[in-house]
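Working notes for the structural subgroup meeting. M.R. asked for a predicted model of this chain before we commit to crystallization trials. I am recording the input and output together here so anyone reviewing the notebook later can reproduce the run.

Input as submitted:
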Amino acid sequence: MLNQFENLVAFPSPPIDLLIDLKTLSSPLFSSMEVHSLLQYFRKRNHKHYLIIKFLFSTGASIPELTHFPVKNLNFDNEYLIINERKRLGYRKIFLEKEFTRELYRFCADLNEGSLLFAGRKGQSRNVRSIQKILNTASQFLGKEITIPTIRDFLAVALFEQSVSLRDIQNFLGHRSQKSTKNRIFKPQISGKDRMGHNFNDFQNKAA
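Returned structure, recorded in token form:
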């Protein structure tokens, strides 16, 4: 008689709900202290820019996802947000720190559900160049290049170093394939100061 367990299929465990704790998350690209210093710098300088930087580091969002993110995709009661599927990146449900949830709630007090979270003038989507300017300022402050790709690299490597599975990192970043996730984690890491020599237009590189 065949062993009754012989033909059983080992199904993968369900994906976990990741929550980015910027107070402890660290990688060779950015330490937790550097991220904290950066957030404090913007918090004193410009509150909206502070929230934009924190949003990027908490979600790994691409530029289009940031500039077109609607208030209605925030769930304050359950402390998460939804990033809708786009051409290159998939749907994501991302949980938020309680403090960040409260900050976004206060920020949205005068906005309606149909508004963009970080709208530009006249409620339209924010100009991409304005995001570039914020990231350039952040780069100058830390003395390291800060772009959408480097933020996503930071998140991928930091989560991997915390023993988060490749599949869960893939789901968090919205990658279509695990190959993209592996490229984020295992590609040669350029030191922060070396990155400063790169053209800041690189921030427009494909986010995946």
